[in-house]
Known about the structure:
By secondary structure, this protein is mostly helical. It has one domain. 70% of the residues lie in helices and 0% in strands.
Amino acid sequence: MRTFARWLANKWERSEQKELENAYRVTFDNVYGRIVLHHWLNNIYCQYSQSTDPIELATHNGRRSVIHEILEALDMAEHPDKYQAEVDGG
Length: 90
């Protein structure tokens, strides 16, 4: 169980990702970045597909998942303490 606890702590530590998270923040923390993100939120992320075609549904969900990853990275950059996992030493 200790191996799993160490893996989990390392997974959520994300020290190597801090530079990437800051890059997301810098990219979207300006007028043009906010315009693009707002456009993606309105036209992709907050929309639902009325299609019954599985390929179209999968494509839409794939596009939404990319935007969700961007939102997560921005949140991690702005609130890093929220993503710190506590690991029991025993």
